[in-house]
């Protein structure tokens, strides 16, 4: 039997987050390339970004043929959020990084596990045309309900929130508050000994 879903946020009625969603006005358009395996993941945060940010779009696929629209993006003012040795570090105050950040109009973000994101990169060579950006220091992971294999893993929501804070000086707290609500509502019916595994350290 399928669960009843909220028609707006698409979470189950018992974990509906509509009352927790705040609208944030961002100037840089966030384009999320979402791996198909993430669509039905109940803990996926990309959907929350699309409901919270005024400039956000989700495109689903895993290869070049699925993301042909990125070919129309301005190469000089579009960045790809992806850890790489060639990436400019958004939290580095050097002149090159600062000047580049001020010119950005689009930010591409890959939504999926590390393995799936890597697959998207390999199967979408046109992504290499864009300047990669990343972080020198990874903020503390607030997304406790979905375990990741790497200590420096961030949810899509956290990665975008931190990026916009660095690039546009947007206050990311409303996004983090929404994420904390997701943490609590996804664990509310767990036995106490199980819920304890997902509490802040």
Automatic annotation (TrEMBL):
Q: Name one GO biological process term.
A: tRNA processing
Question: What UniProt keywords apply to this chain's record, in alphabetical order?
Answer: S-adenosyl-L-methionine, Transferase, tRNA processing
Q: Does the keyword Hydrolase apply?
A: no
Name any one Pfam family assigned in the record. Answer: DTW
What EC designation does it have?
2.5.1.25
The family note in this entry says: Belongs to the TDD superfamily. DTWD2 family.
Q: What is this protein called?
A: tRNA-uridine aminocarboxypropyltransferase
Which organism does this record belong to?
Pseudoalteromonas porphyrae
């Amino acid at each position: 039997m399928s669960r009843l879903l909220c028609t707006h946020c698409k979470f189950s009625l018992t974990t509906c987050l509509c009352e927790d969603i705040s609208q944030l006005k961002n100037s840089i358009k966030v384009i999320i390339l979402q791996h198909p395996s993430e669509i039905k993941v109940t803990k996926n945060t990309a959907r929350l970004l699309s409901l919270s940010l005024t400039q956000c779009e989700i495109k689903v696929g895993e290869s070049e043929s699925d993301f042909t629209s990125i070919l129309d993006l301005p190469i000089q003012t579009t960045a790809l959020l992806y850890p790489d040795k060639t990436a400019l570090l958004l939290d580095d105050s050097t002149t090159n990084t600062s000047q580049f950040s001020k010119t950005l109009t689009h930010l591409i973000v890959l939504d999926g596990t590390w393995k799936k994101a890597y697959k998207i990169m390999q199967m979408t060579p046109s992504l290499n045309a864009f300047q990669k950006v990343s972080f020198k220091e990874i903020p503390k992971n607030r997304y406790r309900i979905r375990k990741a294999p790497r200590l420096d893993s961030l949810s899509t929501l956290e990665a975008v929130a931190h990026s916009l804070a660095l690039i546009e000086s947007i206050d990311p707290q409303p996004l983090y508050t929404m994420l904390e609500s997701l943490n609590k509502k996804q664990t509310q019916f767990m036995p106490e000994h199980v819920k304890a595994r997902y509490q802040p350290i």
